[in-house]
Amino acid sequence: MLPTLQAMTNMQVSTARRRRRVPLSGVTVLACRSGGQRIQDRKMLPSVKQKLDDGEDKPSLAVVCPWTTTESPRNRDSKKGEDSKESAMGSGGGDGDGDRRAQPLLGKLSESSSYGSSDEHLVKVKRTGTVWTAMAHIITAVIGSGVLSLAWSVAQLGWAGGPAAMVFFAGVTAVQSTLIADCYISHDPERGVVRNRSYVDAVRLYLGEKSHLFCGFFLNFSLFGTGVVYTLTSATSMRAIQKANCYHREGHDAPCSASVGGDAYYMLLFGLAQVVLSQIPDFHEMAGLSVFAAVMSFFYAVVGVGLGVAKVIGNGFVMGSIGGIPMVSTTQKVWRVSQAIGDILFAYPFSLVLLEIEDTLRSPPPESDTMKTATRASIAITTVFYLSCGCFGYAAFGDATPGNLLTGFGFYEPYWLIDLANLCIVYTQPVFGFVDRQFGGGAVVEVPLLGSTRRVSVFRLCFRTAYVAATTALAVWFPYFNEVIGLLGSFTFWPLAIYFPVEMYLARNKVAPWTKQWISIYAFSFVCLLISAFACVGSAAGVFGAETS
Asked: How many domains does the chain have?
């Protein structure tokens, strides 16, 4: 017999074993027990839920059942015969080193763990983010080295196509961000309310393991490609610092380009520095350094805009043309246009971090509503900033617009400001490059260093060194800033920013095929696929064509 409601509210409950004690404030944990006898039959659970629903006080519920826990056979066998640790309803959970993880089955758990998370626990997480903090996260995530190539992109597209392309892709980014924002909360029939705290978690939940692996390929390619891009950018910025100082000492007509060496020299120097920096343990957990790096990214972008405005004012007129830089042949013009589109694609999307930002927001109002508001405002601000950087750069230099606004040396003075902006680019790189966070085990050796003994992971040493060597080698092999950015942006744009968000949205909302909504969403995806393919082909032609010519 099931206990009455009064008996149930006084019943002792069993909680999953945890590594640390956590308060279950505001959450009622209901074990699948009745008078000491564990409820083994799923069919009995609706009756339990009905009795609770009939009560006046309806706290958030989580049901811990034998069929809703994941436990290793060895750990399960070792627990046979043990007296279960019980606590009064609403008190803290038990401690222990077990690996069993409880999943909410009935009712609504207000703060459910993310799908597949290794630290799932029944605990109310305090989220304090607002629309303002979300906007700050988005803007600092979007603005990066891609902003430096926007003036070159506008120069290829002209006054007609350049601003129009930026506004168009701002709209595309707004649409795909809305689709992703709706995928944060999932109502799972067995797990209850599930928060997808990361992009890959959402892909795995809605689309399955195969799509998760497919997504992982493009994600890792994007991370690796970003390392190559920042190696290129940082090395050219180091060279630009040398050139700026040379021009300041010797004059603007001095042969500084020959005296400071080629880009490959600085790429190798920077690669050696990265090998050392990459061995710092838990580099990715240095929150202060990440904030500082975001400030550096914003700083050099602002410097680029400011120098462009100053140059236009100094010239006294606006340079450029409606159709952009003329080329010798139509084919060359088409390739340049496609590369320019690829550069813009690289600069805009932030889909990979959107759900992580949304996971910081407080509720009410619903997190998705707050995120959509923050996304619209952030994209509007970013678009104005991008238009300023691209258009003022093109207005300042016209057909002579450099591929990298800070290193093409249309600017000579103030040399210290140019040095500082380029130094910010160099310092940003270590935050992005090192991605061996999946493997923490392996052999460890003790190395004497600075009068003490340091424990060094052999895997970390080998993997990170090889990773840095690979990014540096590719940067030296393909030292084409705009073409590489265009290839990376166009290759990863459609799968990561369009395809997976569209498929997740359709799966979550169970949109019926061939309805107006289904057709419009797939039409949007198909148009973006064509644009991405066009930009990818042109950028690849620029990278490999320049290499073979």
From this structure: 2
Q: Are both 224 and 314 inside the same structural domain?
A: yes
Query: Global pTM?
Result: 0.69
Cα gap 131→361, rounded to integer Å: 8
Lowest-confidence segment of 72-76, 327-331, 372-376, 513-517 by average pLDDT: 72-76
Q: How far from 363 is each of 109, 124, 125, 438, CA to CA, in Å? A: 14, 12, 11, 31
| Residue at 327: amino acid letter | M
Output the CA–CA distances (angstroms, integers) from residue 121 to 71, 114, 118, 205, in the order listed. 14, 10, 9, 18
Question: Over the stretch 294-314, which tens digit does the pLDDT of each residue have?
Answer: 677 777 778 778 888 888 898
Q: Is residue 122 part of a domain?
A: no
Residue 344, pLDDT score: 93
Are 153 and 97 members of one domain? no
Q: In whole angstroms, how far apart are CA 462 and each of 267, 389, 458?
A: 20, 40, 6
396 vs 60, higher pLDDT: 396
- The span from the CA of 15 to the CA of 190, in Å, is 18
502 vs 276: which has the higher pLDDT: 502
Q: Is the torsion defined by CA of 72, 78, 82, 88 positive or negative?
A: negative
Instruction: Look up the domain containing 142 and give its range.
Output: 131-548
Q: Are strands 185-188 and 86-87 parallel, antiparallel or unpaired?
A: unpaired
Distance set, CA 152 to CA 158, 513, 516 (Å): 10, 42, 39
CB-CB contact of 491 with 221 (8 Å): yes
The long-range contacts involving 506-514, CB below 8 angstroms and separated by at least 24 positions, are 507/206, 507/207, 508/182, 508/183, 508/186, 508/206, 509/182
Distances (CA, A) of 281 to 82, 291, 437, 455: 40, 18, 10, 10
The 10s digit of each residue's pLDDT in 432-455 is 333 444 454 556 666 666 666 666
pLDDT for 285 beyond 60: no
* Amino acid occupying residue 11: M
pLDDT at 118: 36
- Beta strand pairing call for 37-38 and 192-195: unpaired
Structure tokens belonging to residue 358: 């949304």
Amino acid identity at 379 = I
Same domain, residue pair 467 and 523: yes
Please report, for residues 180, 445, 500, 537, the alpha-carbon distance to residue 532 in angstroms, rounded to integers and kept in the order given: 19, 47, 15, 9
N-terminal to C-terminal alpha carbon distance within the chain: 83
Whether 190 and 70 share a structural domain: no
Report DSSP letters for 406-437, one per residue: TTSSS--SSHHHHHHHHHHHHHHGGGTS----
Residue 331: give its domain's CATH number.
1.20.1740
Q: For residue 118, tell me if it sits in a domain.
A: no
- Residues 72, 141: one domain? no
- Residue 265 belongs to a domain: yes
